[in-house]
Each structure stands twice: as structure tokens, then as C-alpha cells.
Amino acid sequence: MMPARAAAAPPPLTEPVEDYLKAIYELETRFGAAATSDVAHALEVAPASVTGMIRRLAAQGFLDHVPYRGVQLTALGRRAALRTIRRHRVLETYLTRVLGYPWDRVHDEAERLEHAASDDLIERMATALGHPTADPHGAPIPTAEGDVDERTHRTLADLAVGERARMVRVSDKDPSLLRYLAEIALQPGAEITLVARAPFDGPITLRIGAGEPVVGPNLAAQVLVESMTVSPSASDHRAAVAGATNVAAGAAGARAVTPVVDGEVAAPARPRSRKPSR
Fold first, then answer.
1. Would strands 224-227 and 154-155 be described as parallel, antiparallel, or unpaired?
2. Is residue 278 scored above 80 in pLDDT?
3. Pairing, β 204-207 against β 191-197
4. CATH number for the domain harbouring residue 21
5. Around 16, how many Cα atoms within 13 Å sit in the side-chain half-sphere?
6. Which pTM value belongs to this model?
7. Is residue 233 part of a domain?
8. Nearest Cα residue to 153 out of 276, 265, 275
9. Are strands 70-73 and 63-66 parallel, antiparallel or unpaired?
10. Which residue of 11, 159, 222, 273 has the fewest CB atoms within a 10 Å radius of its CB?
11. What is the pLDDT of residues 57-71, one digit of tens each?
């Protein structure tokens, strides 16, 4: 039986509008509001173009202006953004689990398909997949009703020497990073111990299974983790992430280890934003 589609779904939007709302959602999640310059950098467009689009989206009820900070999504804008994000992450999961795509290649494919896929197609894919709650990179999949798990996580760089954690998520945007993480078995669900940390932002030694890979602090700051002691509610999300990873591992073929998220990592200082994860 097909699940009921969410009521009061936003009207069909153009591809540029969906991209803007998605980018603003990601920036707002990290910083509380989206500045024009950050939106321009994320979408790789001119600031003047962003100003014009933001004005139109605000007039249509998708955005509110926040003095001296930028814009925030209204309830209507948030529903529209999460609708597109849901499409993207269900598509990534379907491509990995059903079609056998490696996890480092699904982002670009999902980017192309997310604007064309109907809500009905996405719901059929989600049903066929068993309604997953996380994509192959650990990013939470919004529900058809627009609910999403937005809990924050520590990064691998935050761990103390000797501390144990489980990988939760990494951004899907950099294929070369994903391939490297797969090579060192750093993937969603992997259990990690931080063995040593060199001074002055030096390399970090990890223990993952029988291996002890060494990573730089910049890479460690992009990997989201959770403590090995987690609440029952957190374990549900972890199980979903591990399930997506196991399927992605089969898709990678002969490689010894596969896939590792969103996520975008909020830094203490406001960094330059990259094109948001979808």
C-alpha cells in the first residue's frame, strides 16, 4: 500500500528556486540566517543575482528578512526546501542500494534528477527502500510530512585522545574525499578510537578495526561522530545509517571498504560556505 502523501505540499517550483531554498536552508541551519554573500558563494552566482532572487522569494512568501544578518525561510519556504532535500537523499539511497552506484558518485546524479522526479516517484522509491531515515552518507532524510532529524554532532577533531566514537555522517560533495575515507574504513557506523594527536594542529592517529590510519585535522573536522554511549532514540538513526552503508559497501565492488555526510560542519568561526550538500 502506498503511503499517503503529505497534505498542503508546496506548488511546483522552478529548478533555480528549489536550489535557492535548499541553499538557504543549509546556511540557516548552520548560522541561523543566510547572508547574501554566502548564498552567492554556495550557488556560484553573482551577488546581484542573489539579491534579485531573494527579493522575489520574499515577495512570494518563502523568505523573511533578518536585519543585519540576511534571510530566513518562512514555514512555506522550509517545507519547499525539505521537499527538495528529501528527493535528493531518497534518490541517493535508491541509486546506491538498488542500482549499485558507488557512494562517491550519487550526489551529482541526484542533483540532476531531483528537479525532475515527481513526489509520487519519490514516495514509491522510499516505499521500495523500506522508508530509510538516512542516506548513504549519513544525512537524515526528511519525511514526506516535512519532519527531519536536525540534531547536532561533534566532529572527529573534537575527540580527546583515547576517546571512542562512532562515525555518523560526512558531506556528499567531494568524491575524492569519499573515496579516501572508504580506503581507510572511515564510514558511517565505523567505530573509532583516537589514539594520538600531534601538537600544533598536527596529524591525528585513529584506530578503526585493525588499522591505524593517520588523518589531518582539516579532514577530521569534516567527519561527524557520536559518542559510543548513545540514547535509545539516537540508536535508531545510527542503525539506519549503518544499513545504508552496508548496501553502499556492496556497490563498491572490489574495494576493501566503502562509503562513509550533510554533513556540513558548523565551525566556531563563520567560514566561507561551499555549495550545500543536497
1. antiparallel
2. no
3. antiparallel
4. 1.10.10.10
5. 10
6. 0.76
7. yes
8. 265
9. antiparallel
10. 11
11. 999 999 999 988 999
